[in-house]
Amino acid sequence: MTPRTLPPRTLGSAAVIGFASGLRSAVGIASFVHARFAGTPNAALADGVAALAIVGESVADKLPFTPSRLQLPGLLARVAAGGLGAYSLTRRADPETVAATIVIGSVAALAGSYAGAAYRSAASTKVPPVAAALAEDVAANALAYTAVVNSRP
What proportions of the chain, in percent to the nearest 5, are helix, strand and coil? Predict the structure, then answer.
């Protein structure tokens, strides 16, 4: 049996949700929750809880005692969230390709974590750190939204 190749749209969604998870880990988890409960009686509640997680992470990110996203426990959480988010968006794909999307999402989350840290470091020298963080929030959520919308059949 020849392995199937992933459609570019599937690859893109996996990479984008992974990268967004590197910026804000809650968006990968939220995409999983959204996909899991979509079309069920609990969909609105699940989406509300996911939205609260996103807001909570956004607030916690700006606190002065929040550790760097590049420290191991947080970095591993972001990588896992990227893989989970990619899985949630691509789980309807051929089972042979789902593992590849998890790897793509995880690697993209690692890249997003380092890119986000570099952005924040550079942007915080030009604008107030809170403004840089808020811009990153917007970018993470816009990327996650794009990945979710583009992953729909």
Answer: 80, 0, 20
Q: Is 29 left (phi over 0), alpha (psi -120 to 50) or beta?
A: alpha
User: What would you report as the CA-atom Rg of the chain, rounded to the nearest whole angstrom?
Assistant: 15
Separation of alpha carbons 36 and 153, rounded Å = 16
What pLDDT is recorded for position 71? 97
Distance CA 35, CA 53 (A): 16
Alpha carbons 120 and 148: distance in angstroms, whole number: 25
> How many CB atoms within 10 Å of residue 49?
13
Q: What is the pLDDT of residue 3?
A: 54
- What is the predicted pLDDT for the residue at 94? 65
* Mean pLDDT split into 10-residue runs, the chain, 153 residues: 70 95 96 91 96 96 95 97 94 78 97 98 97 97 93 76
Q: Which of 130, 122, 34, 25 is nearest to 79 (CA)?
A: 25
Q: State which amino acid sits at residue 20.
A: A
Between CA 3 and CA 17 the distance in angstroms is 24
